[in-house]
Amino acid sequence: SCNDPFTWTRCKNDQMRATILHAARDIRLDDVSDPQLHDDGDAIVRVVASCVCGSDLWPYRGINKVNEPQRIGHEFVGIVEQVGSSVSTLKVGDFVIAPFMFSDNTCALCVRGVHTSCVQGGFWGFADHKGHPVDGGQGEVVRVPVADGTLVATPSQPSQELIPHLLTLSDVFPTGHHAAVSAGVTAGSTVAVVGDGAVGLSAILAAKRLGAGKVVAMSRHEDRQRLATEFGADEVVAERGKEGAAAVRGIFDGIGADFVLECVGTADSMR
User: Fold this and answer.
1) Which of the four, 133, 172, 195, 214, has the lowest number of CB atoms within 10 Å?
2) Is-contact 228 198, C-beta < 8 A?
3) Maximum Cα–Cα distance for the chain, whole Å?
């Protein structure tokens, strides 16, 4: 059935489709070749759901230059269709969550928690360390290198209603949680969250889960302000720049927050 992602299959002669960014503001749904297993540790995953990330917008808007057509997308969940002979933690039919990059989870850097510097790691849409192509997450099927270290299988097949919630675990919620943990948020502390996108909203949830006493959300969008409040923000600051900083200091007795979580990822937000 085309309406059920758990049983959906393409017709025999159908070409696989994936999003391709050809140039700034030029994104297309193109026919592409089906991914193949290249290494014994690979898996092939049929995508059930994927996200558009704020960082996808940087090359789309021309902030990051696009020199040639490239696959995009790095947040997805799906069903395992094939596994290489050395894959031991996954089986065909598993529902899996893919993080925003692939890594072996065993090298010295992964063991230290720096998976983004994994010696076998890399990013979706680019070649792996052996030069084999890796699909983007906004496509119908994805080849996953070092699958044992990358994919996380759920204990059972989730319901349709649960899929969007699991999808947040591919990037945005762990990123917001990472911000809160890296900052060192403690019980009873004060926190300011810069950014009201999915990562910023997740950081508010994370700060509250870690016991923050007061959280200020910096947000200019009314719909996101409502979500921020629902997720635990105690106050909202809509101003930006020096005015925004002054407003946050004013809330916290003129000295500012104990911890600041930068959840946009640009130089402007960091400043």
Assistant:
1) 133
2) no
3) 66
